Amino acid sequence: MSYARQMLDTFTRTVHVDADVLAAAIDAMSDCAQSCTADNAADLSEPNLAEMVTCIRLCMDCADICTATAGVTSRLVDYDPGVLRPLLESCLAICRSCGDECERHAAMHAHCRVCAQACRRCEQACRDLLAALD
Q1: pLDDT score recorded for residue 31
Q2: Taking residues 101-121, what's their average pLDDT?
Q3: Among 47, 72, 104, 119, whose Cα sits 20 to 30 Å from the Cα of 55?
Q4: How far from 70 is each of 38, 59, 62, CA to CA, in Å?
Q5: Burial of 131 by CB count in 10 Å (0-12 exposed, 13-18 middle, 19+ buried)?
Q6: Do 93 and 52 form a contact (C-beta atoms < 8 A)?
Q7: Residue 28 belongs to what H/E stretch?
Q8: Tally of CB atoms within 10 A around 4
Q9: Closest Cα partner for 59 from 81, 44, 70?
Q10: What pTM does this model have?
Q11: CA 80/CA 33 separation, integer angstroms
């Protein structure tokens, strides 16, 4: 069981969304942020650095947005849909963009393949959580 799920199980107040969906999203965001940070470092060591500039920028943006979204989502007890929905939509969008860019490099760089997988998982988890909030 993930730490996100364990923490949700300790909440004394009612969580108004499926706890499994919520925990999966928090875990996916945290994993994606870590993967993007690591991929960014690996990208910077590539000999064809000029070709990696877009990937580097998107990984940095994705890591930051995933981290912020995971933080706000982790406090989800009485959420403000006007704040949470746009955050999740932004997280979904950056994961899609970053995943697309990492997939372009995946055949040549294994670190980009792993990052693309993390982005796709996070993208789907954000989509699932948005649906659960309806």
Answers
A1: 98
A2: 98
A3: 72
A4: 18, 16, 12
A5: exposed
A6: no
A7: helix 19-44
A8: 21
A9: 44
A10: 0.92
A11: 23
Collapse the DSSP code of 89 into the 3-class scheme (helix H, G, I; strand E, B; otherwise coil) and give the result.
Answer: helix
Distance (Å, rounded) from C-alpha 128 to C-alpha 134?
Answer: 10
Asked if residue 2 lies in contact with residue 27, where contact means CB atoms within 8 angstroms, the answer is: yes
pLDDT, average across residues 47-71: 97
* Nearest by Cα to 28 from 111, 117, 109: 117
Give the C-alpha distances (Å, rounded to integers) separating 97 from 26, 77, 88, 107.
19, 29, 14, 17
Q: Which letter does DSSP use for residue 107 in this model?
A: T
Range of the domain at 76: 3-132
Q: What is the CATH number of the domain that holds 119?
A: 1.20.1270.360
Q: Which three-class secondary structure state does DSSP give residue 47?
A: coil
Tokens of 93: 């969008």
By C-alpha distance, which of 76, 67, 122 is closest to 99?
122
> Is pLDDT above 70 for 15?
no
How many domains does the structure of the chain reveal? 1
